[in-house]
Specification:
The chain contains 11 helices and 12 strands. By secondary structure, it is α/β, with parallel strands linked by helices. Strand 9 (200-203), helix 9 (217-222) and strand 10 (228-231) form a beta-alpha-beta unit.
């Protein structure tokens, strides 16, 4: 089989091993990146197409008469026309669970950074404020312990459970929230009730029509003014203007997000304003440990070998 990887540079920073993946094919061509105008030419003679974010739409699939398999080097499938692939007899497989440890670790890191005012203290030292302290230490910014605090989790899949396990090690109380219009039970607290109880709210649900703007003005009004919001899920789940205003108005104590509604934010974003207090933004990097990225490459190999052996795994258009 001939395979092309259209945008391997979105995963690899010269620290990944592709040698095993190459053995799954007779030929594997690695392209650092591919523009929309280059897609048709690069995939037309391929049996297998590997893509991270490059769009494989219906027209491309129809043009590729040799195409048998599309491997998505991600969990999300929105860049591939799954229906057209299915009708054309093309199997589509994704990668799953590769970043659980990395994202859970990043989530806890953001919680720790907020609870200890870590970035503020680092900046204060660099600006010489510690030098001027009349005592041996600097305690200008709030420091709170995670122990005894309540963590609310929205989205209790593999990621949510991993975060809960780490948080429990810090002595936190865990509440799992039910999404609006979803049934609650003894294990899941109704969404509206959850908001008023949590000291930290961590989001791990997918972005859907149901979860878009899940956290906006009414939700911030229900939260404690001492609460913190963590979003390592998707940008559109939190209304960004509402978050900016909530932080400015002191409706919540702080927030950290690894995601924005448009990435990268080339046209700017309301959350990038310099006057928003106690907000940490990381560049969708929570998943990006070298171990997680290598795990993804390994899953691409597993998916390809399984397909060759007639035992398809991780198929998303079956």
């Amino acid at each position: 089989m001939k395979a092309v990887f259209l945008d391997y540079e979105s995963l690899d920073k010269n620290d990944l091993d592709f040698s095993q993946l190459k053995t799954a094919f007779d030929e594997l061509i690695l392209f650092p990146s591919t523009t929309p105008e280059q897609v048709a030419e690069r995939v037309q003679n391929a049996d297998v197409v590997i893509t991270n974010k490059v769009m494989i739409d219906a027209n491309i699939i129809k043009q590729c008469h040799r195409l048998k398999l599309i491997l998505i080097s991600a969990t999300g499938t929105n860049n591939v026309d799954l229906e057209q692939a299915k009708s054309s007899g093309v199997v589509v497989c994704n990668c799953q669970g590769y970043g659980t440890s990395a994202v859970a670790q990043h989530t806890i890191s953001l919680m720790l950074a907020l609870s200890t005012s870590l970035l503020k203290y680092d900046q204060a030292v660099r600006q010489g404020q510690w030098n001027k302290s009349p005592i041996f230490c600097l305690l200008d910014f709030p420091i709170i312990e995670l122990s005894g605090k309540t963590l609310g989790i929205i989205g209790y899949g593999e990621l949510g459970r991993a975060v809960a396990k780490l948080a429990e090690a810090f002595g936190m109380k865990i509440l799992i929230g039910a999404l609006p219009n979803r049934a609650s039970d003894e294990k899941r607290v109704p969404f509206v009730e959850l908001l008023s109880q949590v000291d930290f709210l961590s989001l791990h649900c997918p972005l859907t029509a149901e979860t878009k703007d899940l956290i906006s003005i009414p939700q911030f009004d229900l939260m404690k003014n001492s609460a913190f919001l963590i979003n390592c899920a998707r940008g559109g789940i939190v209304n960004e203007q509402a978050l900016a205003d909530a932080l400015r108005q002191g409706k919540i104590a702080g927030a950290a997000t690894d995601v924005l509604s448009v990435e990268p934010p080339k046209e700017g974003n309301v959350l990038l304003a310099e006057d928003i207090p106690n907000l940490i933004i990381t560049p969708h990097s929570a998943w990006g440990s070298v171990e997680a990225r290598q795990r993804m490459v390994d899953q691409l190999f597993e998916n390809a070998v399984a397909f060759k052996n007639g035992q398809v795994i991780r198929q998303v258009n079956g």
